[in-house]
Amino acid sequence: MKLVVVESPVKSKTIQGFLGPKYRVLSSYGHVRDLPKSELGVDVENDFQPKYIIPLKARKVIQLLKNEVKRAELTIIATDEDREGEAIAWHLAQVLDLENPKSEARNPKPYERIVFHEITKPAIENALESPRKIDMNLVDAQQARRVLDRIVGYKLSPFLWKKVARGLSAGRVQSVAVKLIVEREREIEKFKTQEYWSIEALLRSRKTEFSAFLSKKDGLVLDKLAIKTKDESEKIVQNLKNAEYKVENIEKKEVNKNPLGPLTTSTLQQEAFKKFRYSGKQTMRIAQNLYERGLITYHRTDSLNLSDLALSTAQKFIIENYGEAYHQFRKFKTKSKGAQEAHEAIRPAYPDKNPEQIKTQAKLDNNQYKLYDLIWRRFIACQMKAALFDSTTIDVSAKNYVFRANGQTLKFDGFLKVYPMKIIEATLPLLKRAETLTLIKLTPLQHFTQPPGRFSEATLIKALEIEGIGRPSTYAPIISTIQERNYVEKDDEKRFKPTEIGLVVNDILVAHFPEIVDIKFTANMEENLDNIAQGQRKWKNIVKEFYGHFSHNLEKKYQEVSKKEFTEKPTGKKCPKCQAPLLVRLGKFGKFYACSKFPKCRYTESLPENTLNIKCPKCKEGQIVEKRTRKNKIFYGCNKFPDCDFALWDKPLPGRQAGTGQTCPECGSLLVEKNKKISCSNKTCASFSKK
C-alpha cells in the first residue's frame, strides 16, 4: 500500500476516489509545524534559525500519519504546488522522518513529491508518473517570508504598545496596504472640487431626435473643464441664437471589443467582489472548495497560461454549441510583476460541461455555483471571437462651434453570448453630409469634478498587484488582517477608510520606519523572495541584510519617540473624580477622555461625537454611547459603566425631543435599527416590528 498525504480532507476524498484501494490518501489538516506564538521563534543571534514546533492541534494527526508511514511501502506528498504547499511538504518530511539525514530514525522511509494543477484523474496519474523531491529553493523562499514577517511583527508590535496603545501590531506587507488606504483618504480630503459645464443640443432630423454635445470652438477641441462657469455657458448659448445646425461630418466604422483573459487569483477576487460582493476571504474559501473537489484548476496563481488540452476542449465546446464563427484561438501573457508563468490560469477542470451540469452533478450550493459559473464563462469567453459594433460619429456645425454625437449598435455578439457585459447601445438617425437639422433645445449642464474614490476590495487588490506587493496567496489575508486589527474599516458603500488608530500607526511607521511602509522597498523584497525561489539568492542573507538596519533603527526609536506626541492632547478640562487635567487619549478603538493621573485615577468618558444624545433608560443619568468590544464589534451602552451596565447590540433610534429615544408603544423599551428594520430592543416583546 502507498500512502498519499495532502492538506485537506476534501482533497483527500477526491483523490482517493481516483486512485482506488492500492493507495491510502490522508490529510495533514494544513500546517503541521509553525513558529511558536508565545515568542519570536527566530534565533537572530544564530543565523536566524527558525524554532519550529508542532502545534497542539496537529499532534494527533502527526501520530496517525507516523503509524501509516511505517506500514506504507512509499509515502507520496501531494500538497499544493506553490511555496506554501512546498513548505508544508518539507515540514511533513521532517516530522515523519522521510529520508531525513538528520533524523534520529535508523531507517528513514522513502518518499516522493508530486504536484498537479488540477485534481482530475488524468492530472493525478500524470503526476504519479513524474515524481520529484522537495524543492528546497521554494521552501527557503517561504521560510524567508515567514521569518521576515515574524521579525517585523514581534519586534515592531511591542514598540507600538509602548508608544501608542497595547494590543496593536505591525505587519511587513499589511502596513503597506494601510498606507495606500491612508494616502488615498488624504488625497480625497485635499481634493478641491471644480465646477464645469457642458452644453447639450437636442436636434431633430425629420422625425428622429438625438442629442449632441459641444466639442469644439474655432476648430479647437474643448477639454472637460473648458467651460468653467454658468455665465460662460450662457454666453455660448446666447452666441448660438439663430444659428443654423448642419451635418459637417459622418464617420462610420466597425469596432471590435475583445474578451478579457482567463482569471487569476487577483482578477477572480476583483470580479467576485464586483459581481457578488464577495470578500477576498470568502472568494478564496469557495475557490479552495471547488479546487479540492476537482472542479477548477489551482486557484492561487498569477499566470494567464492555458494548457493545450484545455484550449482544444474549449474549441470543441464552442464550435459544437455556438458555431465555428464564434471560436478564436487565443493565448494571453500576464503583465503582473514576478508572475509564475509555469503555472496555469484559473479555469474549469471540465470546460466541456456547462455550469448547470456541474451544479447538479457536484451538488453545488448557490455561492459555489455563482463562482464556478464566473470561472467557466470567463474561460470559455476568452477563446471566442470579439464582439463587433457598428460605430457612428456625427459632427454638427453651428457658427464657429461643433457638436458631436456618438452612437454604436451591436453587429455580432461574439464572446458576449457567454460573458455578458454592460454595453451601452445608442442608435443615431441616418443623416447626409450638409443636411440641415432642427434645434429643439440647447441646455447648459452643470457638473463638478469628483475626488478619487476610496478603495474597494477589488481596487485595493488591483493596486497591490500593480505595485508588486504580496503574491496571489496573500491578497485575501492582507485585507482580512488590516480590518481585524482595526486599522481600516468599511464605509456605507463597502469601501475602505482608515480608522483613527490606523492613521496614527501609519504616521508613526512613515516617520520612523519608512522602509517598512515603502512601496518600492516592499516590492523589491518580493523580488528577492522570487530570487530565492529560483535559487539565485540565499534566504538567510536576505534576512540578514534587512535585520541589520531594522534592529538598529528600532533601538534608536525607542529612545527618540514620545508616546504623548501621538496619543495625548490636553483639553483644558478637569477630571470630575480627582480634578487632575483631563486628556483626549487614543486607544486601540479610537479616542476618549481619560484622566492624566492614570493609573491612579481610572476615570474615562466617551467623546461627544460618540454620544447618541439618548438618556440611558436604566439609570436615567447616563448617556447612550457607541462602544467597541475587544474584537472591534460595535455596541451601544451607558457611559456610566461600570455603575450602570445597560447595553445594546443594535443602534437605538433618537426621539423627536433632544436627549430622548424612540420607545416601543407596546412595552416602552427603546426602539433599535436591526437589519434595516425598526424593532423593539426588548427580546421578550416580539409583537412590535415594522419596516
Automatic annotation (TrEMBL):
EC number: 5.6.2.1
Catalyses which reaction(s): ATP-independent breakage of single-stranded DNA, followed by passage and rejoining
PANTHER family: DNA TOPOISOMERASE, DNA TOPOISOMERASE, TYPE IA, CORE
Catalytic site positions: Y298 (o-(5'-phospho-dna)-tyrosine intermediate)
PROSITE patterns in UniProt: TOPO_IA_1 (PS00396), TOPO_IA_2 (PS52039), TOPRIM (PS50880)
Gene name, Swiss-Prot/TrEMBL: topA
Family designation: Belongs to the type IA topoisomerase family.
Region (Interaction with DNA): 169-174
Quaternary structure (record): Monomer.
Site residues by UniProt (Interaction with DNA): H31, R145, R146, D149, Y154, W161, R300, R485
Keyword Zinc: yes
GO aspect biological process, one term: DNA topological change
Descriptive protein name: DNA topoisomerase 1
Domain Toprim: 1-120
Keyword annotations of the record: DNA-binding, Isomerase, Magnesium, Metal-binding, Topoisomerase, Zinc, Zinc-finger
Cellular component, GO annotation: chromosome
Annotated Topo IA-type catalytic domain residues: 135-554
Keyword match Disulfide bond: no
